Amino acid sequence: MSNVSVNTDATQILGGSGEVMIELRGVDKFFGEFQALNNIDMKVGKQEVVVVIGPSGSGKSTLIRCINRLERHNRGSIVVDGVELSDDVRNIQEIRRETGMVFQSFNLFPHLTVLENITLAPRNVRNMPKAEAEELAMSLLERVQIPQQARKFPGQLSGGQQQRVAIARALAMQPKVVLFDEPTSALDPEMVKEVLDTMQDLATEGMTMIVVTHEMGFAREVADRVVFMADGAIVEVGNPEHFFTNPQEERTQLFLSQIL
Amino acid sequence: MSNELHLDLDGVPIDVGPRPAPHAAKLSPTAWAKENLFNSIGNSIITLVFGAIFIATTWWAIGWLVDAEFEIVRRNLRLFMVGQFPKEELWRLWLSGYTILIAIGLVSGALAHNTYDLAVEQGVPAERESLMSLVRRFWALIAVMVFFVSFARTLLPYIGVAAAFALVIVSREVGWRMPSAVRHRAIYIGSTLAIISMLVLSGTSKLGGVTLGLVAFFWALSEMGRRDAPTTAAGKLARFAIPLAVAIIVFAIEVVIPFDGFGWEDWGGLHITLFTSVVGIALGMPLGILLALGRQSDLPVIKSASVLFIEFVRGVPLISLLLFSGLMLPFFLPIDFERPADLTLAMIVIMGFSAAYIAEIVRGGLQAVPKGQTEAAQALGMAPGSLQRLIVLPQALRAVIPAMVGQFIALFKDTSLLVVVGILEFLDVASVANNQPEFLGKGLAGVTYIFVAIGYWAFAFTMSKESRRLETKLGVGTR
Question: Parallel, antiparallel, or unpaired: how do β-strands A49-53 and A208-212 relate?
């Protein structure tokens, strides 16, 4: 039973400056026999905030992991800021320099201090001098509001603080887009807010963001566009208002009724 | 003991009586014994049985110790300690030993102060390790040194050992007090002293050259491990090129001049045991790490070479490798090359042996590093090389410290196999002493072998203890 007004077109940019930042065309991803992504066509605009939601196994994490080549897509093309993702190592690293990622399990480097975690990539990848990198790191720590933790080790911080350090670490490379893979799913409830606030500030400052999350409040407040995925395909797309008040597709309605 | 105010469900206060005193933290010995040893019939019986065995054994041991004739040890003390090292050159051993002790003292003092500073910076409570706690920490080594020197027949060794203790304490103090900039370069100071020590021992360039190569290698390694990357092209070149060049030059020298030192053919005793262990560990560890990385390389040649080496060495007993070292190794050298001394070949075997086992241990460690670490580093755009050396390896090595030190301890004891290539190492001195005409057939085997066992135990125990301490310090096993 198809409803003609269901919007499955993920190539419509709904926010930001309107120019295309990331484009996926006909992307398929298989894990052996299992198809994780099914013919994905999607565009993300500069300074747009796209929130991807869906049940587990829907392929949303796989989607963003394909963008920075943590997973290799089997068919189709992915273009990030004009550069097409190929098997060439240098090309992959170029794209990775421009895309930051924040993980569900933070993945901070436990043997380095907070400051070193943040300065590692700029110094090592962009060859930034130590003093400059540390200055940048401190300013980022202030931006995420934990400058006093600079000399501590990640193990000494709370989950919310660790995730904010992870965000600062991603921002240190001055990326063009930041990918968030369920950033608050591993946090205690009282720490979720501080991280979401940080992400909201980031969005307000104009960063292009793709956020995979279950936090519907965040999607409602901050997203320019919401994409609902299930079984590896895009099921419905829309702006937050439409999405949460008037979802068209039955699957979407079912999912939202369970979440909200 | 106070009456606490408890409220029942309706908010009415109920009197639950005085609060019981907390269980006393320290029990008197009798109370402790009663609670832990005799708290049930079964436990009481076990206590009595084991107590009886323990007392009987100790009684017998003390009796034996008092009656035993230690003359055999006294007469052969030099043999036990340094084998047949030329007597007139013994001063070299003392001098190089002292130099090493100074190096150890300086570096450990400096590093201790660095750790202290770091803790203060983080606002974590820190205190300087006192002399008493150091003595407690190394009691086994100190006790065994005193034990060894108690068999000396002249005054000089006593003075020598006392001077050694004093030297370590003083240099640790000096190391602590060094200015911060110097302290952070303590490793270089220590390495220079190690080179000097080896030069004293070898005379000219021979052994010292190898040490130079070792130092250069470790310099290269520690440069690799440094978290701050030099940003200028010159800096980057200096980091790797210089130590590598030095190592290559040294190797070239060594190809021309055979690897040895004063009285090389006659080195023996505890000295050779310690020397071989240190070389085996110091050279085996970097080679082992390289092998482990090579094993997981994508390049087929490197991968197969690594696998071949590891699986061959691990599949064969060390004793057979040593026996064949005299036959096999010369095949790998150029035809008109002077055949190296047996001891040289044996040390190469020990090093290779150690490397193969360490490679497998490190491989386990590499697998233990969470995949998320690699992903995070990749997401930041880091190149695979930097990723390995800055993120994966440090965590991998930290995770396998217990296994690695276990391997070192095993290696230390495996050096006793050097006897099969005709080297008079520590354990063999015991049989040699037993076979001397004046001691033959007197049943003194117990005395000599227990003497040797005490020596091995002291070092192995200290290594094990330090390993546990390192684990605690690095937080292995905690988040």
Answer: parallel
Residue partners of B234: CB distance under 8 A and separation at least 6: none
Q: Indicate the SS3 state at residue B184.
A: coil
* Residue A215 · residue A200 · CB < 8 Å: no
Residues shown for chain B: 479
Strands A225-230 vs A233-238: parallel, antiparallel or unpaired: antiparallel
**Optimal mutation site among A103, A105, A119, A124, interface B, most CBs of chain B within 10 A:** A124
pLDDT-derived band at A4, boundaries 50, 70, 90: very low
CB atoms A70 and B372 under 8 Å: no
At B191 the three-state DSSP class reads helix
A31–B contact, CB cutoff 8 A: no
pLDDT digit string, tens, across residues B42-94: 888 898 899 999 999 999 888 887 777 788 888 889 899 988 888 888 888 89
Residues of B in contact with A112 (CB under 8 A): 227
Report residue A178 CA to chain centroid gap.
Answer: 5
Which of B122, B231, B381 lies at the smallest CB-CB distance from A152?
B122
Among the residue ranges B19-28, B76-85, B126-135, B221-230, the one predicted with the least confidence is B221-230
With 80 as the cut, is the pLDDT of residue B396 above it? yes
CA distances from B318 to B169, B219, B374 (A): 38, 30, 36
DSSP conformational letter for A175: -
User: Helical H runs in B154-232?
Assistant: 156-177, 180-183, 186-202, 206-225
Q: Tens digits of per-residue pLDDT, B424-460?
A: 999 999 988 888 888 887 777 788 898 999 999 999 9
Q: Which of B380, B391, B397, B398 to mutate to test the interface with A (most CBs of A within 10 A)?
A: B380
Mean pLDDT for all residues in chain A: 91
ipTM of the complex: 0.92
Whole-number pLDDT of residue B364: 94
**3-class SS at A226?**
strand
Q: Tell me whether strands A83-84 and A75-80 are parallel, antiparallel or unpaired.
A: antiparallel
Angle at alpha carbon of residue B188, lines to B183 and B194, rounded to 5°:
120
d(CA A52, CA B1): 60
Q: Indicate the pairing of strand A208-212 with strand A177-181.
A: parallel
Half-sphere exposure in the Cβ direction for A205 (13 Å, CA): 13
pLDDT bracket for residue B120 (50, 70, 90): confident
Which residue segments constitute the domains of chain B, with CATH numbers given? 45-75+264-327+339-479 (1.10.3720.10)
Task: Give the HSE-up count for residue B85: Cα atoms under 13 Å, Cβ half-sphere.
Answer: 28
